[in-house]
Design a protein that fits this description.
The structure holds 2 protein chains of 2 kinds. By secondary structure, chain A is an alpha/beta fold. Chain A is 44% helix and 12% strand. Chain A has 12 helices and 8 strands. Chain A has a 6-stranded parallel beta sheet with strand order 2-1-3-4-8-7, sandwiched between helices. In chain A, strands 5-6 form a two-stranded antiparallel sheet. In chain A, a hairpin with a 2-residue loop joins β5 and β6. The longest helix of chain A is centred in the N-terminal third of the chain and has 26 residues. By secondary structure, chain B is α/β, with parallel strands linked by helices. Chain B folds into 2 domains: 184 residues, Rossmann fold (3-Layer(aba) Sandwich), CATH 3.40.50; 129 residues, Rossmann fold (3-Layer(aba) Sandwich). In chain B, 38% of the residues lie in helices and 22% in strands. In chain B, α1 packs parallel to α8, α3 packs parallel to α5 and α10 packs across α11. The relative contact order of chain B is 0.12. The chains are: A alpha/beta, B alpha/beta.
Chain lengths: 316, 327
């Protein structure tokens, strides 16, 4: 770890934070509609894990995926345009906040059915194994996914077939508005993964350096052909579940307590020389530009409504 | 080259040829390997291709169907076998929310070249959880293609067509047809997805059907021919897309229509076909359209009740006569 890398992490977390704060503003101005699930508070997980991946790797994420998309390198302009429903968006306005996709960075969503991305991530890793490609699939999901059958089916397959896949569970303690202890008989999620004989570790998801180092170790193990790894990242969502959440299910004091563990505060404490003012200024510019890009974007013609139901070309 | 083989053998041959030709093709599903397939379609393939390409999965329909989608996204050409359509309901999230939606949701970036095969249909006294015909349901979903091979030729060709398709294709193999013999011409050019086939020409009634009901329809048509009623039988082959052109052309010739469907009536593919004829060829009709569908009960175990629930040749004959009387 060095100042340059710490500063880079700070910048990426800050970009996600400021981008989403802008999204809230644009939502109240009705520029963005539909569901908008904010990642604020959890940014260290995406930033730390993406650091350990390379360009050839694949990413599957959830409906709370602005952070993953930005950290993976999808241009903020294209993400903002997507939130605006413009054809310059990364899914041409067909997806929206919950369905960000990008072939260039191998970003496979944006899957908004809880745990629905896990089976596909397993299949992607299976194809890499079958084609003898040295690639890793990173699969993000929340603690809510753990209750779904697809979680258990997928972990079993990944372990059974020794697949090159990294499972990242973002445990923010609530499945929407219901606390983990109200829905799970075993709240230590890493133990569930371990029961499938998957190397499994519970880490501090508010500490980007710990996430990055754990992800690097995990990826090294996966690339060495040792099968899947599971990281349970303990984290917290500072904002409401979506824009329609009155937050009746948790105490304000709990939120305040977790805000003391803000990944930005933590990182700055450890690396006081990070030039925050410079990052703030540059990111402010990036976000202004993204908003301008989205504002100036065009709406796809309604004549094209029925496009992308079937491929126009034949199979390769 | 012509050979007389079973429907099961035709499916197997197509899979074998595809796997020999294309290293990206593999088969996965419950009991496809060591057991040889729930309906013995993949018997012997494990020995021929090994466990890396003939993959026995756990009873995890959702995960292995989703894994098929992921592998397709990763450049493979998976054939996922789901033992019966009834079990496919456990994989509905993957089939509908992911396979059917991905191309559109991603703005055209990610197509899913996945083939899903499953057995369908009743008539084997397997009761209400192993006997339903839900292919019409799947035909509701944009993004999917839904094929229903009835002949030995199509049992073979539709595997070939589906593997060559860039999008998810569901193939419904009626379980009773697996033992049925027919002629396979391996040199024949497959009739494209979305094309219906006129199995029997006739001038009095257009009978539209698919799957195993094609044979019941042909049997009824033979009976009716002795009573001076000339039936044209259309095998849809594909429930999505539907071949409106072939249907309307026949309606314009016969001016009378009946549909035979092993699905239930309410909200069914037979209802959809009637609606399309109403929209596109209403003034061609000389009589109200008729339907023979499965009676709206879960399929019962007892043989006499099950047979009474399913479409049968005698019911088709009776319906045809009723339509002819309404002149």
């Amino acid at each position: 770890m060095n100042l340059e890398l710490a500063s880079n992490f700070y910048r990426q977390i800050l970009l996600i934070r400021r981008f989403e704060e802008k999204c809230v503003e644009l939502y109240s101005k009705e520029k963005i509609r539909g569901f908008l699930h904010l990642y604020i508070g959890e940014e260290a997980v995406a930033v730390g894990v993406m650091h350990a991946l390379n360009d050839e790797d694949a990413v599957f994420a959830t409906y709370r995926e602005h952070g993953q998309a930005l950290a993976r390198g999808i241009h903020p302009n294209r993400i903002m345009a997507e939130l605006y429903g413009k054809e310059q968006g990364c899914s041409r306005g067909r997806g929206g906040s919950m369905h960000l996709f990008d072939a260039h960075t191998r970003f496979y969503g944006g899957i908004a059915i809880v745990a629905g991305g896990l089976p596909m991530a397993v299949g992607m890793a299976l194809s890499d194994k079958m084609m003898k490609r040295n690639r890793v699939t990173a699969c993000f999901f929340g603690d809510g996914a753990v209750a779904e059958g697809e979680f258990h089916e997928s972990l079993n397959l990944a372990a059974l077939w020794h697949l090159p896949i990294l499972f990242i569970c973002e445990n923010n303690l609530y499945a929407m508005g219901t606390a983990l202890e109200l829905t799970e008989s075993q709240t230590d999620i890493s133990l569930k993964a371990a029961s499938y004989r998957i190397t499994s570790k519970q880490i501090d998801g508010m500490n980007v350096i710990e996430v990055a180092e754990s992800a690097e170790q995990a990826i090294a193990q996966i690339r060495a052909g040792n099968g899947p790894v599971f990281l349970e990242c303990l984290t917290y969502r500072f904002r409401a579940h979506s824009m329609f959440d009155a937050e009746l299910y948790r105490q304000k004091s709990e939120v305040e307590e977790w805000k003391q563990k803000d990944p930005l505060i933590r990182l700055h404490q450890d690396w006081p020389d990070i030039n925050i003012a410079k990052h703030e200024k540059e990111i402010s510019h990036i976000i202004d530009e993204a908003v301008e890009f989205a504002e100036n974007g065009t709406l796809e013609s309604v004549d094209d409504l029925e496009k992308f139901i079937y491929s126009s070309e034949v199979a390769r | 080259m012509n050979s007389t083989i079973t429907y099961r053998e035709a499916v197997r041959q197509a899979i074998v040829q595809a796997m020999e030709k294309d290293q990206r093709v593999f088969l996965m599903g419950e009991d496809v390997g060591h057991y040889g397939g729930g309906y013995a379609v993949s018997m012997g393939l494990l020995a021929q291709f090994g466990s890396e390409r003939i993959i026995d999965t756990p009873l995890s329909e959702s995960a292995f169907t989703g894994a098929g989608i992921g592998a397709a996204l990763g450049g493979m050409r998976p054939i996922v076998e789901i033992m019966t359509v009834n079990f496919s309901l456990l994989a509905l999230d993957q089939i509908m929310n992911n396979a059917a939606n991905l191309l559109h949701m991603s703005g055209g970036q990610f197509n899913v070249p996945l083939v899903i095969r499953m057995a369908t249909g009743g008539g084997k006294q397997l009761g209400a959880q192993h006997s339903h015909s839900l292919e019409g349901w799947y035909a509701h979903i944009p993004g999917l293609k839904v094929l229903t091979p009835s002949s030995v030729q199509d049992a073979h060709d539709m595997i070939v067509l589906a593997l060559a398709d860039p999008d998810p294709v569901l193939i419904f193999e009626n379980a009773i047809l697996y033992n049925k013999k027919g002629v396979l011409d391996t040199q024949a050019l497959p009739l494209a997805i979305g094309k219906a086939k006129v199995e029997r020409t006739g001038k009095d009634i257009t009978l539209i059907t698919y799957g195993i009901s094609v044979f019941k329809a042909l049997e009824a048509a033979e009976t009716l021919s002795h009573e001076g009623i000339d039936i044209e039988v259309i095998d849809l082959r594909s429930l999505r897309p539907l071949d409106d052109e072939t249907i309307m052309k026949s309606v314009a010739k016969t001016h009378r229509v009946m549909i035979v469907d092993e699905g239930w009536k309410s909200g069914s593919i037979s209802a959809e076909i009637m609606a399309r004829i109403n929209e596109q060829a209403f003034y061609e009709l000389d009589a109200p359209m008729g339907r023979v569908c499965t009676i709206e009960v879960p399929i019962p175990y007892a043989a006499h009740l099950e047979q009474a629930a399913l479409p049968q040749a005698d019911k088709i004959v009776a319906m045809a006569k009723k339509i002819m009387e309404k002149l």
